[in-house]
Amino acid sequence: MKRVAIFGNAGGGKSTLARGLAAITGLPLHVVDMLEFRPGGVAVPPGEFLRAHAAIIGGEEWIIDGYGGKSVWQTMDAADTLVHVDLPLAVHAIGVTKRLVEGLFTPPQGWPEGSPVIASSLSSYRVLWPCHRDLTPRYRAYVSAAAQSKRIFQLRSRREQMQFLEEVRTEVDAAHREGGKVKHTVMGEL
Fold first, then answer.
1. Are 44 and 50 in contact (CB under 8 A)?
2. Measured distance CA(40)–CA(114) in Å, rounded
3. Does domain 3-178 have CATH number 3.40.50.300?
4. Which residues pair with 3 in a beta bridge?
5. At a CB cut-off of 8 Å and minimum separation 6, what does 122 contact?
6. Where do the structural domains in the chain lie, given as residue ranges?
7. Residue 139 and residue 85: Cα distance in Å, rounded?
8. Tens digit of pLDDT for each residue in 27-84?
């Protein structure tokens, strides 16, 4: 697990999962929202975003959290580990609502400073159904086809997300005690 793509519909807890995984593994975390937007929510020019994205996925070690339009497929191609947050649509909607409410009081972690929380949340609500209808089946097909060449984790509940992090933590700790490589047999691996 050196190049990890974490992806799925809005509000699924990808950012929380990515921060937890980065803390456990020590892999550098790159949040797509921070690459795509400047403070205040101003979009980065597409060419600038694509250059920054290419530099990251060309690296040896990383965790990338987020969508990034067509770049998500490039991220998944370059990754050795795919983590698909694949929750029921209602859970994603609740996650967007929770982020909206909390964002009114504290800026969401991983968002550029001064991001428009209400506008961004409304945008997330607008993409929930199209993503669920169109992208989620494509993500599922991609991870199924990639199972022969990549490590795949399809997390279908908040509980599985927490168990995934706990099992990775246990394995990393064991590897450090033994001074060897981490052998992964984490829940949800296909």
1. no
2. 4
3. yes
4. 62
5. none
6. 3-178
7. 10
8. 999 999 888 888 888 889 999 999 999 999 999 999 999 876 789 999 999 999 999 9
Report residue 2 as tokens: 């050196």
Buried b (16+ CB within 10 A) or exposed e, 110-122: bbbeebebeebbe
E strand or H helix at 23: helix 14-25
Positive or negative torsion for Cα 119, 124, 129, 130: positive
32 CB contacts (<8 Å, ≥6 apart)? 53, 64, 65, 66, 67, 68, 71
Report the alpha-carbon distance of residue 178 to residue 174 in Å, rounded: 6
Count of alpha carbons within 13 angstroms of residue 89, beta-carbon side: 13
The pLDDT tens digits of the residues spanning 86-119 come to: 999 999 999 999 989 988 888 777 777 877 888 8
Alpha-carbon distance of 77 to 74, in angstroms, equals 5
pTM higher than 0.85 for the full model? yes
**Which DSSP symbol is given to 178?**
H
